[in-house]
Design goal:
Length: 451
Protein backbone atom coordinates (compact mmCIF):
# COMPACT_ATOMS: atom_id res chain seq x y z
CA UNK A 1 0.00 0.00 0.00
CA UNK A 2 3.02 2.30 0.10
CA UNK A 3 2.62 3.43 -3.50
CA UNK A 4 -1.17 3.87 -3.16
CA UNK A 5 -2.11 1.54 -6.06
CA UNK A 6 -5.53 1.97 -7.75
CA UNK A 7 -5.86 -1.81 -8.30
CA UNK A 8 -4.81 -4.44 -5.75
CA UNK A 9 -4.45 -8.15 -6.56
CA UNK A 10 -4.52 -10.52 -3.55
CA UNK A 11 -3.96 -14.27 -3.69
CA UNK A 12 -6.02 -15.94 -0.93
CA UNK A 13 -5.78 -13.09 1.60
CA UNK A 14 -7.98 -14.94 4.13
CA UNK A 15 -6.18 -18.30 4.09
CA UNK A 16 -4.83 -19.40 7.46
CA UNK A 17 -6.83 -16.78 9.39
CA UNK A 18 -9.44 -17.39 12.07
CA UNK A 19 -12.98 -16.13 11.53
CA UNK A 20 -12.44 -12.88 13.47
CA UNK A 21 -9.25 -12.06 11.53
CA UNK A 22 -11.01 -12.88 8.26
CA UNK A 23 -13.78 -10.42 9.16
CA UNK A 24 -11.25 -7.70 9.98
CA UNK A 25 -9.35 -8.38 6.74
CA UNK A 26 -12.48 -8.12 4.61
CA UNK A 27 -13.54 -4.93 6.39
CA UNK A 28 -10.18 -3.36 5.57
CA UNK A 29 -10.57 -4.38 1.92
CA UNK A 30 -14.05 -2.83 1.84
CA UNK A 31 -12.63 0.41 3.23
CA UNK A 32 -10.05 0.41 0.44
CA UNK A 33 -12.74 -0.08 -2.20
CA UNK A 34 -14.58 2.89 -0.73
CA UNK A 35 -11.51 5.02 -1.50
CA UNK A 36 -11.86 4.53 -5.27
CA UNK A 37 -9.67 1.43 -5.39
CA UNK A 38 -10.36 -1.94 -7.01
CA UNK A 39 -9.53 -5.06 -4.97
CA UNK A 40 -9.34 -8.39 -6.83
CA UNK A 41 -8.96 -11.57 -4.77
CA UNK A 42 -8.74 -15.30 -5.39
CA UNK A 43 -10.57 -17.24 -2.65
CA UNK A 44 -11.23 -20.98 -2.82
CA UNK A 45 -13.69 -21.48 0.04
CA UNK A 46 -15.29 -18.11 0.94
CA UNK A 47 -17.66 -17.98 3.89
CA UNK A 48 -21.11 -16.41 3.57
CA UNK A 49 -19.84 -13.12 5.01
CA UNK A 50 -16.83 -13.01 2.70
CA UNK A 51 -18.91 -13.94 -0.32
CA UNK A 52 -21.55 -11.25 0.27
CA UNK A 53 -18.87 -8.61 0.81
CA UNK A 54 -17.75 -8.72 -2.83
CA UNK A 55 -19.50 -6.61 -5.44
CA UNK A 56 -18.36 -8.84 -8.29
CA UNK A 57 -17.64 -12.58 -8.26
CA UNK A 58 -16.20 -14.84 -10.95
CA UNK A 59 -16.38 -18.65 -10.62
CA UNK A 60 -14.16 -20.95 -12.68
CA UNK A 61 -14.44 -24.72 -13.20
CA UNK A 62 -12.10 -26.66 -15.48
CA UNK A 63 -10.77 -23.43 -16.98
CA UNK A 64 -14.24 -22.14 -17.94
CA UNK A 65 -16.37 -19.45 -16.31
CA UNK A 66 -19.57 -20.80 -14.75
CA UNK A 67 -20.71 -17.49 -13.25
CA UNK A 68 -19.80 -13.82 -13.60
CA UNK A 69 -21.76 -11.13 -11.81
CA UNK A 70 -22.94 -9.77 -8.50
CA UNK A 71 -22.90 -12.03 -5.46
CA UNK A 72 -26.59 -11.27 -4.84
CA UNK A 73 -27.57 -12.56 -8.28
CA UNK A 74 -25.90 -15.96 -7.98
CA UNK A 75 -28.87 -17.77 -6.40
CA UNK A 76 -31.44 -16.40 -8.94
CA UNK A 77 -29.07 -17.36 -11.76
CA UNK A 78 -28.71 -20.92 -10.46
CA UNK A 79 -32.46 -21.19 -9.87
CA UNK A 80 -33.19 -20.14 -13.46
CA UNK A 81 -31.25 -23.22 -14.60
CA UNK A 82 -33.01 -25.57 -12.18
CA UNK A 83 -30.40 -25.63 -9.42
CA UNK A 84 -32.14 -24.44 -6.26
CA UNK A 85 -29.89 -23.50 -3.34
CA UNK A 86 -31.05 -24.81 0.08
CA UNK A 87 -31.74 -22.13 2.66
CA UNK A 88 -28.99 -23.39 4.97
CA UNK A 89 -26.33 -23.38 2.22
CA UNK A 90 -23.80 -20.71 1.46
CA UNK A 91 -24.21 -19.63 -2.19
CA UNK A 92 -20.51 -20.04 -2.82
CA UNK A 93 -20.46 -23.54 -1.35
CA UNK A 94 -23.55 -24.45 -3.35
CA UNK A 95 -22.17 -23.53 -6.78
CA UNK A 96 -18.78 -25.11 -5.99
CA UNK A 97 -20.45 -28.34 -4.85
CA UNK A 98 -22.79 -28.32 -7.85
CA UNK A 99 -20.12 -27.97 -10.55
CA UNK A 100 -17.84 -30.51 -8.86
CA UNK A 101 -20.42 -33.22 -8.14
CA UNK A 102 -22.86 -32.74 -11.03
CA UNK A 103 -20.71 -32.89 -14.15
CA UNK A 104 -23.61 -32.18 -16.55
CA UNK A 105 -24.18 -28.84 -14.76
CA UNK A 106 -20.99 -27.24 -16.07
CA UNK A 107 -22.05 -26.87 -19.70
CA UNK A 108 -25.43 -25.18 -19.00
CA UNK A 109 -23.77 -22.73 -16.64
CA UNK A 110 -20.98 -21.94 -19.10
CA UNK A 111 -23.43 -21.51 -21.98
CA UNK A 112 -25.81 -19.32 -19.96
CA UNK A 113 -23.02 -16.96 -18.94
CA UNK A 114 -21.30 -17.28 -22.37
CA UNK A 115 -18.11 -18.39 -20.64
CA UNK A 116 -17.89 -15.09 -18.75
CA UNK A 117 -18.73 -12.73 -21.60
CA UNK A 118 -21.99 -11.85 -19.88
CA UNK A 119 -21.97 -10.07 -16.57
CA UNK A 120 -25.03 -10.61 -14.35
CA UNK A 121 -24.54 -7.47 -12.31
CA UNK A 122 -27.17 -5.34 -10.56
CA UNK A 123 -30.08 -7.56 -11.67
CA UNK A 124 -29.37 -7.04 -15.36
CA UNK A 125 -27.17 -8.63 -17.96
CA UNK A 126 -24.23 -6.51 -19.07
CA UNK A 127 -22.21 -7.28 -22.14
CA UNK A 128 -18.47 -6.82 -22.27
CA UNK A 129 -18.90 -3.57 -24.17
CA UNK A 130 -20.95 -2.18 -21.25
CA UNK A 131 -18.43 -3.10 -18.56
CA UNK A 132 -14.88 -1.73 -18.91
CA UNK A 133 -13.21 -4.54 -16.95
CA UNK A 134 -14.56 -7.16 -19.40
CA UNK A 135 -12.99 -5.73 -22.55
CA UNK A 136 -10.84 -8.03 -24.64
CA UNK A 137 -7.35 -8.59 -23.31
CA UNK A 138 -5.89 -7.72 -26.72
CA UNK A 139 -7.44 -4.23 -26.53
CA UNK A 140 -6.07 -3.69 -23.03
CA UNK A 141 -2.65 -4.89 -24.18
CA UNK A 142 -2.64 -2.42 -27.08
CA UNK A 143 -3.63 0.48 -24.82
CA UNK A 144 -0.97 -0.47 -22.27
CA UNK A 145 1.69 -0.73 -24.98
CA UNK A 146 0.77 2.69 -26.34
CA UNK A 147 0.90 4.17 -22.85
CA UNK A 148 4.37 2.72 -22.21
CA UNK A 149 5.61 3.99 -25.57
CA UNK A 150 4.48 7.54 -24.79
CA UNK A 151 5.63 7.51 -21.15
CA UNK A 152 8.25 4.98 -20.08
CA UNK A 153 8.80 6.44 -16.61
CA UNK A 154 5.59 5.85 -14.66
CA UNK A 155 5.47 8.00 -11.54
CA UNK A 156 4.35 6.71 -8.18
CA UNK A 157 1.05 8.17 -6.93
CA UNK A 158 2.55 8.88 -3.51
CA UNK A 159 5.36 11.34 -2.82
CA UNK A 160 8.94 10.51 -1.89
CA UNK A 161 8.47 11.55 1.74
CA UNK A 162 5.26 9.56 2.12
CA UNK A 163 6.98 6.40 0.91
CA UNK A 164 9.99 7.13 3.12
CA UNK A 165 7.91 7.69 6.25
CA UNK A 166 5.96 4.47 5.74
CA UNK A 167 9.06 2.39 5.00
CA UNK A 168 11.01 3.92 7.87
CA UNK A 169 8.14 3.28 10.28
CA UNK A 170 7.96 -0.33 9.15
CA UNK A 171 11.70 -0.83 9.65
CA UNK A 172 11.63 0.76 13.11
CA UNK A 173 8.71 -1.49 14.04
CA UNK A 174 10.66 -4.56 12.88
CA UNK A 175 13.62 -3.49 15.01
CA UNK A 176 11.38 -3.01 18.06
CA UNK A 177 9.84 -6.45 17.62
CA UNK A 178 13.27 -8.11 17.54
CA UNK A 179 13.77 -7.64 21.27
CA UNK A 180 16.29 -10.46 21.54
CA UNK A 181 18.66 -8.69 19.12
CA UNK A 182 18.29 -5.43 21.06
CA UNK A 183 19.17 -7.13 24.35
CA UNK A 184 22.16 -8.87 22.77
CA UNK A 185 23.48 -5.56 21.42
CA UNK A 186 22.90 -3.86 24.76
CA UNK A 187 24.79 -6.62 26.57
CA UNK A 188 27.60 -6.43 24.00
CA UNK A 189 28.04 -2.66 24.27
CA UNK A 190 27.81 -2.68 28.07
CA UNK A 191 30.22 -5.58 28.51
CA UNK A 192 32.77 -4.12 26.09
CA UNK A 193 32.44 -0.73 27.77
CA UNK A 194 33.19 -2.21 31.20
CA UNK A 195 36.09 -4.30 29.87
CA UNK A 196 37.63 -1.33 28.05
CA UNK A 197 37.16 0.80 31.14
CA UNK A 198 38.92 -1.75 33.34
CA UNK A 199 41.77 -2.27 30.86
CA UNK A 200 42.49 1.46 30.64
CA UNK A 201 41.27 2.44 34.10
CA UNK A 202 42.32 5.89 35.35
CA UNK A 203 44.84 6.71 32.58
CA UNK A 204 43.13 9.78 31.14
CA UNK A 205 45.11 12.44 33.03
CA UNK A 206 48.21 10.41 33.88
CA UNK A 207 51.24 11.43 31.78
CA UNK A 208 52.87 8.04 32.49
CA UNK A 209 50.16 6.35 30.43
CA UNK A 210 49.80 8.81 27.55
CA UNK A 211 50.64 6.13 24.98
CA UNK A 212 48.15 3.77 26.61
CA UNK A 213 45.55 6.52 26.39
CA UNK A 214 46.25 6.75 22.67
CA UNK A 215 45.78 2.96 22.46
CA UNK A 216 42.42 3.48 24.16
CA UNK A 217 41.39 5.74 21.26
CA UNK A 218 42.49 3.04 18.81
CA UNK A 219 40.47 0.41 20.68
CA UNK A 220 37.36 2.59 20.62
CA UNK A 221 37.81 3.04 16.87
CA UNK A 222 38.21 -0.71 16.29
CA UNK A 223 35.14 -1.41 18.43
CA UNK A 224 32.90 0.86 16.37
CA UNK A 225 34.38 -0.43 13.11
CA UNK A 226 33.86 -4.14 13.67
CA UNK A 227 30.61 -3.80 15.62
CA UNK A 228 28.82 -2.06 12.75
CA UNK A 229 30.55 -3.33 9.62
CA UNK A 230 29.55 -7.00 9.85
CA UNK A 231 25.82 -6.75 10.58
CA UNK A 232 24.82 -5.36 7.16
CA UNK A 233 27.30 -7.71 5.45
CA UNK A 234 25.44 -10.70 6.91
CA UNK A 235 21.85 -9.39 6.98
CA UNK A 236 21.48 -7.02 4.02
CA UNK A 237 21.86 -9.61 1.19
CA UNK A 238 18.67 -11.29 2.44
CA UNK A 239 16.89 -7.93 2.29
CA UNK A 240 18.13 -7.41 -1.25
CA UNK A 241 16.33 -10.57 -2.37
CA UNK A 242 13.11 -9.23 -0.86
CA UNK A 243 13.77 -5.79 -2.34
CA UNK A 244 14.03 -7.25 -5.84
CA UNK A 245 10.50 -8.62 -5.64
CA UNK A 246 8.95 -5.55 -4.04
CA UNK A 247 10.77 -3.11 -6.32
CA UNK A 248 9.87 -5.16 -9.40
CA UNK A 249 6.21 -4.89 -8.39
CA UNK A 250 6.69 -1.11 -8.07
CA UNK A 251 5.53 -1.05 -4.47
CA UNK A 252 7.89 1.86 -3.76
CA UNK A 253 10.89 3.69 -5.16
CA UNK A 254 14.51 2.79 -4.51
CA UNK A 255 15.46 6.24 -3.20
CA UNK A 256 12.97 6.38 -0.28
CA UNK A 257 13.75 2.75 0.54
CA UNK A 258 17.49 3.34 0.63
CA UNK A 259 17.13 6.48 2.72
CA UNK A 260 15.02 4.52 5.21
CA UNK A 261 17.63 1.74 5.29
CA UNK A 262 20.39 4.28 5.88
CA UNK A 263 18.62 5.89 8.84
CA UNK A 264 16.85 2.97 10.51
CA UNK A 265 19.79 1.86 12.70
CA UNK A 266 20.82 5.40 13.68
CA UNK A 267 18.53 5.75 16.76
CA UNK A 268 19.69 2.45 18.26
CA UNK A 269 23.30 3.20 17.36
CA UNK A 270 23.11 6.55 19.16
CA UNK A 271 21.66 5.00 22.32
CA UNK A 272 23.96 1.97 22.50
CA UNK A 273 27.02 3.84 21.22
CA UNK A 274 26.61 6.59 23.79
CA UNK A 275 26.19 3.98 26.54
CA UNK A 276 29.53 2.44 25.55
CA UNK A 277 31.25 5.83 25.30
CA UNK A 278 29.95 7.09 28.66
CA UNK A 279 31.09 3.93 30.47
CA UNK A 280 34.59 3.94 28.99
CA UNK A 281 35.03 7.70 29.17
CA UNK A 282 34.26 7.78 32.88
CA UNK A 283 36.20 4.64 33.86
CA UNK A 284 39.32 5.77 31.98
CA UNK A 285 39.22 9.17 33.70
CA UNK A 286 39.23 11.25 30.52
CA UNK A 287 39.10 15.06 30.89
CA UNK A 288 35.73 16.14 32.25
CA UNK A 289 35.19 18.84 29.64
CA UNK A 290 31.85 18.93 27.87
CA UNK A 291 33.25 20.05 24.53
CA UNK A 292 35.86 17.25 24.48
CA UNK A 293 33.26 14.64 25.38
CA UNK A 294 30.94 15.86 22.63
CA UNK A 295 33.77 15.87 20.08
CA UNK A 296 34.88 12.39 21.11
CA UNK A 297 31.33 11.02 20.99
CA UNK A 298 30.54 12.63 17.65
CA UNK A 299 33.67 11.24 16.00
CA UNK A 300 33.02 7.76 17.44
CA UNK A 301 29.42 7.67 16.16
CA UNK A 302 30.56 8.88 12.74
CA UNK A 303 33.05 6.00 12.58
CA UNK A 304 30.20 3.61 13.33
CA UNK A 305 27.97 5.16 10.65
CA UNK A 306 30.78 5.03 8.09
CA UNK A 307 31.51 1.40 8.99
CA UNK A 308 27.87 0.49 8.57
CA UNK A 309 27.90 2.23 5.19
CA UNK A 310 30.90 0.17 4.10
CA UNK A 311 29.12 -2.99 5.29
CA UNK A 312 25.99 -2.00 3.38
CA UNK A 313 28.09 -1.47 0.26
CA UNK A 314 29.59 -4.95 0.56
CA UNK A 315 26.16 -6.44 1.33
CA UNK A 316 24.70 -4.72 -1.74
CA UNK A 317 27.31 -6.26 -4.01
CA UNK A 318 28.11 -9.66 -2.49
CA UNK A 319 26.20 -12.64 -1.16
CA UNK A 320 26.38 -13.54 2.52
CA UNK A 321 29.16 -16.07 1.95
CA UNK A 322 31.27 -13.84 -0.28
CA UNK A 323 30.63 -10.77 1.85
CA UNK A 324 31.85 -12.56 4.98
CA UNK A 325 35.19 -13.02 3.24
CA UNK A 326 35.34 -9.66 1.46
CA UNK A 327 34.62 -7.52 4.55
CA UNK A 328 37.65 -8.65 6.60
CA UNK A 329 39.82 -8.52 3.49
CA UNK A 330 38.78 -4.91 2.88
CA UNK A 331 39.07 -3.90 6.53
CA UNK A 332 42.58 -5.31 7.02
CA UNK A 333 44.48 -2.79 4.82
CA UNK A 334 42.29 0.01 6.18
CA UNK A 335 43.43 -0.86 9.71
CA UNK A 336 47.04 -0.95 8.52
CA UNK A 337 46.77 2.53 7.02
CA UNK A 338 45.08 3.67 10.23
CA UNK A 339 48.04 2.85 12.49
CA UNK A 340 50.81 3.50 9.96
CA UNK A 341 53.52 5.87 11.22
CA UNK A 342 52.78 5.50 14.93
CA UNK A 343 56.02 6.51 16.69
CA UNK A 344 57.62 8.14 13.67
CA UNK A 345 54.74 10.19 12.34
CA UNK A 346 56.88 13.23 11.59
CA UNK A 347 58.85 11.19 9.03
CA UNK A 348 55.88 10.03 6.95
CA UNK A 349 56.38 11.01 3.31
CA UNK A 350 53.91 13.07 1.32
CA UNK A 351 52.89 10.22 -0.95
CA UNK A 352 52.33 7.84 1.93
CA UNK A 353 50.48 10.56 3.82
CA UNK A 354 48.02 10.73 0.94
CA UNK A 355 47.69 6.95 0.72
CA UNK A 356 46.89 6.44 4.40
CA UNK A 357 44.02 8.89 4.15
CA UNK A 358 42.29 6.55 1.72
CA UNK A 359 41.32 4.73 4.93
CA UNK A 360 38.37 6.27 6.72
CA UNK A 361 39.76 4.67 9.88
CA UNK A 362 42.80 6.93 9.64
CA UNK A 363 40.51 9.94 9.45
CA UNK A 364 38.57 8.59 12.42
CA UNK A 365 41.59 7.94 14.66
CA UNK A 366 42.93 11.43 14.00
CA UNK A 367 39.57 12.94 14.99
CA UNK A 368 39.39 10.82 18.16
CA UNK A 369 42.99 11.60 19.14
CA UNK A 370 42.56 15.32 18.54
CA UNK A 371 39.41 15.35 20.66
CA UNK A 372 41.35 13.87 23.59
CA UNK A 373 44.79 15.51 23.24
CA UNK A 374 44.27 18.57 21.07
CA UNK A 375 44.84 22.00 22.73
CA UNK A 376 45.30 20.36 26.10
CA UNK A 377 47.36 21.47 29.10
CA UNK A 378 50.28 19.30 30.31
CA UNK A 379 49.17 16.12 32.03
CA UNK A 380 49.87 15.05 35.60
CA UNK A 381 53.17 13.20 36.11
CA UNK A 382 52.86 11.44 39.47
CA UNK A 383 54.36 7.97 39.03
CA UNK A 384 57.71 8.99 37.53
CA UNK A 385 60.34 11.69 37.94
CA UNK A 386 60.12 12.64 34.27
CA UNK A 387 57.26 11.96 31.84
CA UNK A 388 58.28 12.42 28.20
CA UNK A 389 54.70 12.69 26.96
CA UNK A 390 53.53 15.02 29.70
CA UNK A 391 52.97 17.56 26.95
CA UNK A 392 50.34 16.00 24.60
CA UNK A 393 51.85 17.90 21.65
CA UNK A 394 54.80 15.48 21.65
CA UNK A 395 52.48 12.50 21.26
CA UNK A 396 50.58 14.20 18.46
CA UNK A 397 53.89 14.94 16.74
CA UNK A 398 55.15 11.34 17.03
CA UNK A 399 51.94 9.82 15.69
CA UNK A 400 51.81 12.26 12.77
CA UNK A 401 48.88 14.36 13.96
CA UNK A 402 50.59 17.53 15.17
CA UNK A 403 48.95 19.91 12.70
CA UNK A 404 45.74 17.95 12.14
CA UNK A 405 42.40 19.75 12.35
CA UNK A 406 39.54 18.05 14.17
CA UNK A 407 36.94 19.88 12.08
CA UNK A 408 38.48 18.86 8.75
CA UNK A 409 38.70 15.22 9.81
CA UNK A 410 35.09 15.18 10.97
CA UNK A 411 34.12 16.58 7.58
CA UNK A 412 36.25 13.83 6.06
CA UNK A 413 34.30 11.21 8.01
CA UNK A 414 31.04 12.71 6.80
CA UNK A 415 32.43 12.55 3.27
CA UNK A 416 33.21 8.85 3.67
CA UNK A 417 29.71 8.25 5.06
CA UNK A 418 28.19 9.82 1.94
CA UNK A 419 30.66 8.04 -0.36
CA UNK A 420 29.93 4.55 1.01
CA UNK A 421 26.18 5.12 0.88
CA UNK A 422 26.41 6.40 -2.68
CA UNK A 423 28.34 3.32 -3.80
CA UNK A 424 25.80 1.08 -2.07
CA UNK A 425 22.92 2.90 -3.77
CA UNK A 426 24.52 2.61 -7.20
CA UNK A 427 25.20 -1.09 -6.60
CA UNK A 428 21.53 -1.66 -5.74
CA UNK A 429 20.43 0.38 -8.72
CA UNK A 430 22.63 -1.77 -10.95
CA UNK A 431 21.31 -5.03 -9.50
CA UNK A 432 17.68 -3.93 -9.83
CA UNK A 433 18.08 -2.65 -13.39
CA UNK A 434 18.26 -6.00 -15.14
CA UNK A 435 18.50 -4.48 -18.61
CA UNK A 436 21.56 -2.37 -17.74
CA UNK A 437 23.30 -5.20 -15.91
CA UNK A 438 22.59 -7.60 -18.78
CA UNK A 439 24.10 -5.20 -21.32
CA UNK A 440 27.25 -4.70 -19.24
CA UNK A 441 27.66 -8.45 -18.67
CA UNK A 442 27.24 -9.11 -22.40
CA UNK A 443 29.91 -6.54 -23.28
CA UNK A 444 32.32 -8.03 -20.75
CA UNK A 445 31.65 -11.51 -22.11
CA UNK A 446 32.34 -10.30 -25.66
CA UNK A 447 35.63 -8.72 -24.60
CA UNK A 448 36.91 -11.89 -22.93
CA UNK A 449 35.60 -14.05 -25.78
CA UNK A 450 37.39 -11.82 -28.30
CA UNK A 451 40.66 -12.14 -26.39
Amino acid sequence: MVSNPPIIFLDEPTSGLDSVSVKHCIEILKVLTGQERTVICTIHQPSSYVFKSFNQVYFIQDGMCVYNGSSSNLIPFMSSLGYDCPVTYSPADFIIETVQTVQESVSPLVDSIQNGKLNRRDSKVLHSSDYPLLRKSSDIYKETTQMLETKTDIDFPTSFWTQFSILFSRMILQIKRNKKAIWIQLFHHTLCGVLFGLLFSGIGNNASFTVSNFKYCVCVLVFFVYTYIMSPVILFPSEVRLLKREYFNRWYGLKPYFLAVSLRSLPLMLVLGMAFIIITYLLTDQPMELDRFVWFSFASILVGVASEGLGTTIGSICSITNGSMVAPAVAAPLVFFCIYGMGYGQYIGRVMNIIIYTSYMRVGIVALTQSVFGNRHPLECTDEIYCYYQDPKRLLRDVGMADASYTLHVLGLIGYVIFFRLIAYLALRFRLTSELSRIIVNYISKIFHYR
